[in-house]
Description:
The protein is α+β, with helices and mostly antiparallel strands. The protein has one domain. The protein has three helices and three strands, in the order αβαββα. Helix 1 (2-37) crosses helix 3 and helix 2 packs across helix 3. The radius of gyration is 15 Å and the shape is globular. 14% of the residues are buried.
Amino acid sequence: MRTWRFIKRRLVGPIRFFPIYAWMLTLSNLRIAFDVLRPRPGFHPGFVELDLDGYNATERWAAACLISMTPGTLAVDLKDGGPILIVHGLYLQNKEQAVAELVMLLRSALGEPEHESSWSK
């Protein structure tokens, strides 16, 4: 069972992840470019918290890097060094939707967490 989990996480996960990430990267780049060219940008900046409980330190680091590489988002800090990642976003009209999109990105890249977190609640 452990071997299948390893194969799924290390081999199948990245194959599923790259098209999703490329699509999200393209959309965010276009949105930033459009707002830069507008006379009044439509930014709605704010912060959201992501619960990374169930992921190890390396996976948390990877999550922070993936979020920061996407234009319009920036991983700011791990709250008190724990599993809560604070993320700044330029477009946070709907914080729940933003968190859901980030969770989808992270789960497609990192797989399911080792145990259930507050994402599934």
